[in-house]
Every structure is written in structure tokens, then in C-alpha cells.
Amino acid sequence: MKRGFYSIFLLCVVFIFTFNADGFSQQKPKTVIKGRITDSKTGQPIPFAAVLLENTTVGTVTDDQGYYSITTDAPAYKVRFSYLGYDTQTHIITPGKMQTVNAKLDESAVNLNEVVVKPKKVKYKNKDNPSVELIRKVIDNKSLNRKEGADYLMYDKYEKVKFGLINLNQDFSKMRAFKDIQFVFDNVDTTYRNGKFNLPLFMKESYSAHYYRKDPAATKDIIKAEKTINFSEYIDNKGVGSTIQYMYQDINIYDNEIFFLTNKFLSPVAGTAPLFYKYFIIDTSYVEDTKCIKLFFEPRNPEDFLFHGFLYITSDTLYAIRKIDMSFNKGINIDWVKDVRIVQDFQKVGERSWVLALDDVLLEFEVTKDSPGIFGQRTVSYTGYSVNQPIPDEIFKGPDIITEGDITNKGNNYWDAVRTPPLTKTEERIYAAVDSAKQVPSFRRQMNLIMLLTTDFLNMGKIEIGPVTNFYSFNNIEGSRIRFGFRTTPEFNKWLYFEPMVAYGFGDNQFKYNLKTTLSLKGTSIYQFPVKSLSLSYGYDTRIPGQELQFSQGDNVFLSFKRGVNDKMYYNRTLNFEYLNEFENHFSFALGYNFTRQSPGGNLQFVNSNNTDIPWLDISEAYVKLRFAPKEEFYQGKLYRDPVPSTNPVIQLKYTYGSDKTGGDFNYQKLQANITKRYYISIVGYTDIGLEAGKVFGTVPYPLMFIHNANQTYSYQRYSYNMMNFLEFVSDQYVSLNVDHSFNGFFVNKVPLLKKMKLREVVTFKALYGGVTDSNNPDLHPDLYKYPTDENGVPLTYTLEKKPYIEASVGFSNIFRVFRVDLIRRITYLNNPNVSPLGVRVQFKFDI
């Protein structure tokens, strides 16, 4: 879960936890009904019978043994049981109590399109099964019914997304912590689903025109209007929008695989779906004026990433889907998510085409059991369809998504005309309610706390102080280290940004410092894509050779604890200049110059083959970095930006030219390239693969070669070798492979004792193969530096000519919902000094 949802999530959590816990004891008692439905004559269970609380929307279906269970806050007094081929029964229940209600249904004869559904217990099979035959007809006609079958397609799209609190009661709003914002609770929605009242806290609306062309394939979205709850002081609305788009990607039921909640689910109408789903014809019914066959489907294995629910299939020869009402089993490993409902309605355009008219997705997130939770709802309506009417080629030129004029300043009359369906009274009031809440000091304090938790910076308006976790750290060379830094925000200046830092080590008694200045060449935030900027920095600081940390800096207090020997550092005095230019197509390049005077520290020395000590190494480099990430999306905060995972590759290339003509000690060239990509493998999770290669041209000492990324902290680092020691391996040419696969609980979900823990299995494999050519071998060139040794002369730095470095791991993520723990095995080079063959690494990983 990226920071966009994380920020909204924490906003809701603040509301939930900033009141007296006694409030939970005052909740109204729940109505709990459970029982079994059987055949009155045979006593056999009736699977997939419908159970509904009358005058509510609360209901369920029985399992394959005829059992059911309902827990609700809804005021209900009767429960109705029905199944095709049986007479319906209604039983009286007592609200607010736990009770068992069994039903014995009497058989009745029902014919459905010449298929007689007989109510008897039989072993499920696909052969000669009319339900499977029906679904195969739907599968066979997918190419005709899916909207991509049209040559051209145009429609208007209205989208509304909201987040807030659910499962509230009247006592919740009376908590002392909310006394300053009581007016917010005037916005509680008196409508409910499953008896749960809700309080919206965030809402975003958009209106756009969509164009599609089949050949050559092209799409275009023209955004015409947007309206969002304004939290711009704390979170970036565009970034939140990207996160929402990532979580609520459009669901096309006709796709074989459906990307939903950062996972891939097999569609119930995929070509192979009958191998993984069970299907049952329930009834015939009308959806508005269309006669349909109602089909229930469910996974054969409840723990697999599959849906269950109802398909309404047109009873004509088109076999089109008229409506979908589906969810997924609570037993699958989707963390934080308590409930899901996906409803889609289709409309007929022309003689054959059925197109999506309404898409409604409701999510309920659970923070603690039986407490107020968090809901997220995305509603999209599609109108103004035009099918197979040619679209001018000019429409598809340029970026796939563009804006039309000023999209944020549309009047009420405009929105009233394009909203389909219109806002509820509660939704109409949410904009004003949130604007008022932001003026309350207690609300601002809570939002500043959220920003501190998500960004590690304390918001002070024109500046942000931090990173807070870097204020104190320690290591063997600097001893205890204190640091203070801040960065300016766009409120200080939209064109010019400053990021100063000062630190002091009590072990080496030295001050460190850095000042970075960035000029935005577009007058927009330097964190807002696409960026065009010039930056200049000068500083003096320490660096561990070969340590490249993910999402953190080296002096983070939590990363101060390290295994093994950590007594070697660089002291770098660095001047850097860089020009960065990002383009809308997600290609970017950076041109830069870097001068560093690098001195060895601790037990590290620069000594050549003549045993001459070298006090420092002067490095003068010009470089160019190229990056291409097609269709990349970001969560973009005010002062940070995180990429959203996708199946599109990310390709990077860096070329460096080092010269002694501009003050450096050596002439050389370096070329480095890498590509990363994620692959989803349906119900068995996803794999992240990274390939990288590098080459040095010229004669250089080992500090200018590739010092491979090592990790001696106890934090799992995805792009480092977690069992490799700092400065253990150097190369002037190398290739590497990094494979990280998450099974998303595919195996442990099938183990009863482990299932409730919602663990997710992860496996990794990392291999590095490289070497040092004769041109950079210090034994052949006396001017080059010797590889480091310990005080007894035992070598500590090696090359990789003999065999690759390999490590692999197995582990679990989603431990207590926020941790990943890996048991890592180092497979090669086990005889090197200070090597551990096994290790445990932990990572904080907040995700769905």
C-alpha cells in the first residue's frame, strides 16, 4: 500500500483511536443468526440457498453443507429462506440476540429453459452440468460482448470515490476527543449497508470523455472536470488520485485475469474458469426489462484468489452479462480488507452491444475487530455511448491522458448536469464539513501527526524538519552522531528549494554538513511529475562503501545496529551539479557533474603496491542518466514521490566519464544498465525480476570500480545482498539477477492453524557474477590501491572470477500486518572472513 492510501488510512485511524476505548462497550448488541437448511423429506443439506433478512439488504447463501451465518446491526424481525425448486419459508427472529434458525424446505417442481433443476445432493462435476454449459456459452461469446470488440468506442465517464468511517453508533460522536468537531458528525449518512452507518471524510469526483480505437490500438482520456476534498496542506490530491486509480483499477469481467486490490484474480468467465469455479443456476429473473438467468459461482478452493457471487446472463442467444454482483471469500489473504462488494450493470446499445453502464465497488477495511472501520467506495457511471462511429485520428495524438482547460473551477450547475447518479445529501455537505474541520487546531495537530508518520518530517508550513529518525544514530567510527536538517516547501518558494543539514560525530569529533539548492524550471514543485530542474549541492559527510539503502539514509537510528565488522568508511567532500528533465511519456534524462575528494576512515586505508599511503582520492565525473518507465504512476506527496507497482518495465542506463583533466586522479568510463519488471501469475501471486549489468573502461583503483551493494543491517533490503559484507566484493564488469516472488498466502491459507494469521509466503533468489580484468588488477599495476585487509593482513575484499555470489531466502510477509521476515541462506563464498551462512532480516512493509 503506497503512501497515498496510507495517508487516507491513517486519517481515518486517527478518528477511530483518538477517543476513550470505553466507547466500544456502548455499541448496540448485534443480531447473530446461524443455522442449516435441509430438504424436508430427505434431510439432505441444500447448498447455495438464499438467506435474506426481510426489509434489509442483508443476506447470504448457504455453503455446500447447507450452513449459513449472518451477523448484523440492521433492525430485522424476519428471515426468509429460498431456493429454486423449493417453497420459500419465512421465520421470525429476535433482534440483538444470538440465535439458531434451521429451515426444512418443501420441494416444488420448477422448469428453467427446458432444464429441470432437481434438488438432490450430488457430487459436483463439470460434465453434463447445465450451469457449466451456460458459462461456456458466455465464454464462447466474450469476443462479441466485450466492448473491445468494437472498432470505435466513445463514452462519457463520471467517477466518484469516497473514504470514511463505517459501523458507527451514536455514542461514537460523543467522545471527548471530538468535542471541537461535532459538526462533522452531522454528516453521518443515515442510509446503511448491512446495518452500518457511515461518515465520509474524503471524496473525489471527476468527469471525462473516453475514446477507443481498435486498429491501430489507441485510447485517449480527456479529463474535463475534477473536484476533490482539499487536503493540499498535508497530502497531494493528484497523488491520492493515482493511488485510488491503482487500488480501484477498472474491472473488465470479460478479461481472463482481473487486477484488483494489488492482486490478480481469475475471472469467473475466463477460458479456464470452469477448472477453478463451481457454477449453479439459481433462477430466472428480470433486471429492469431484461430476462436473465441468475447464476451463482464460487471457488472450488475457498483460499484461492477467486470471486464468488452472481452473474445475470441474458436469456437470448447473445449470452451477454447483464449484471454482476460479486465479492471474494474472507478466507483469502487480503489484509485489512473486511468486506468487498462489486456491482456492475450493463446496458444494450444497438442490436448486439452490451456495454458497462454502472460500476460500483465498496470496500470495508478493518482496523480492530468489532470497532468502527474504514470504507472506500468507487462509483463510475458511463453515458453517451457511441459504438463503431469513426473517430478522427487527431484525437489520439499526444499523451493518452490530457486535461481540457481549467478542470478544477467548474460551477455547481456544471456538476449537477454531469453527475450520474447525483450526490446524496450527505455527500453534498462533505466539502464544507471538511473545510471547517481543517480550521480546528486539534484536527490540524492530528494531520501533522499523520504527516510525521508517513514522511518522517515535521510540517512547519514553509519548512519541514527532518528526517526525524536521523536525528540520532551511531556507528563504530563516528560514535554517537546527532543530526539536524530541514527542507523548504512550495509555501516558501515555488521556484527555489533549500535542503540544509548539519551533523556531529562524538567519536571522530568532526562536523558534517550539506546544503542542496534546487531551482524548478517550471515553477511547480520539484516533486511533482514531470520535473524540470537544476540542482547544486556541496557537503562533507561519511559513507559506508557498498551500502545502498532503500527508502532511507545511512544514519537512520533503526539501521545503526549492524552485524559483523563495520569499521571502514569514506569521508567525502562533494560538489554536485545536475540538470533533470522528465517528459510526459515517462522518459527522463539527467546530466550532471560530480567532484569528490574521498578520504579513507576508520580501519580503511588507501595503499598502493609500493606500500605508499594515499591520503585521498580525487574523483571528477560527468554523467548522463536515462530512464524510461512507460505508463508509470506515482503516489505524489507534497515533498516526496513513490512509484506505484505495475507490470510495465522500468529501464535505466547510466554513463559516467571520469577525467584527470578536470581535477580527477584517473581517466575512465563506466556504463551501467538495469531493467525491473513485475509479473502477476494469477492465483499464485506475483514475481519481481531485476536484471543489471555494468562495465568499467580504463584503469582505476577499487573505489572507482563497482563495489557491490551489501547489507550488514538487520533490515531486509530488496536491492542489496543481505548476507554480503560491506566492501566484500568489487568488479569492473558484472551481471546480476534478482528474483522476488510473493505467493500471497497460496500455501499457508490451506493450513488451518496458519490460515487465521494471514501470512504470505515470499521466496527470493539473488545471483551476482563478475570479475576484475587485468587492466584493473592491483597486482599488475603498482599505482592501484591494494584490496583492504584486516589488522593481521587477511584479505577482506575479493573478486568474483571463480564463481557467482548467490543467496536465497524464504520468509513470510504480513506478520502483524506490517512486517516481513526472511530467513536468508548464503550459498557461495562461505569461507570468506566474518561470513554468516544464515541470517534473519526484518522489513516494515505496510501493504494490502
Name a few traits of the molecule.
single chain; 2 domains; 848 residues
The H-level CATH homologous superfamily of the largest domain, spelled out, is: membrane protein fhac: a member of the omp85/tpsb transporter family
If helices are DSSP runs of H or I spanning 4 or more residues, what is the number of helices? 8
Structural class: mainly beta
Q: Return residue spans where pLDDT drops below 50 for at least 5 consecutive residues.
A: 17-27, 110-121, 191-195
Text of the CATH class of the largest domain: Mainly Beta
Could you please say which CATH topology of the largest domain applies here? Porin
Major sheet details: 18 strands, antiparallel
> β content, as a range?
35-45%
Shape: elongated
CATH architecture of the largest domain: Beta Barrel
Q: Please tell me the total number of domains.
A: 2
CA-atom Rg in angstroms: 31 Å
What share of the residues lie within helices? under 10%
Distance between the termini: 6 Å
Quantity of strands, as a count: 46
Q: Kindly state the mean pLDDT as a whole number?
A: 84
In terms of topology, how is this protein built?
Elements: H1 3-17, E1 31-39, E2 50-53, E3 59-61, E4 67-72, E5 78-82, E6 89-92, E7 98-100, E8 103-105, E9 111-112, E10 115-116, H2 130-140, H3 142-145, E11 152-168, E12 189-193, E13 196-213, E14 218-228, H4 237-247, E15 257-260, E16 263-266, E17 277-287, E18 290-299, E19 307-314, E20 321-328, E21 337-349, E22 353-365, E23 373-387, E24 401-403, H5 412-418, H6 425-437, H7 441-455, E25 458-459, E26 463-465, E27 472-475, E28 479-488, E29 496-505, E30 510-520, E31 532-543, E32 568-582, E33 587-602, E34 617-628, E35 634-636, E36 641-643, E37 650-658, E38 668-680, E39 686-698, E40 706-707, E41 730-731, E42 733-742, H8 752-755, E43 760-771, E44 805-815, E45 819-826, E46 838-844
Helix pairs in contact: 1-4, 1-7
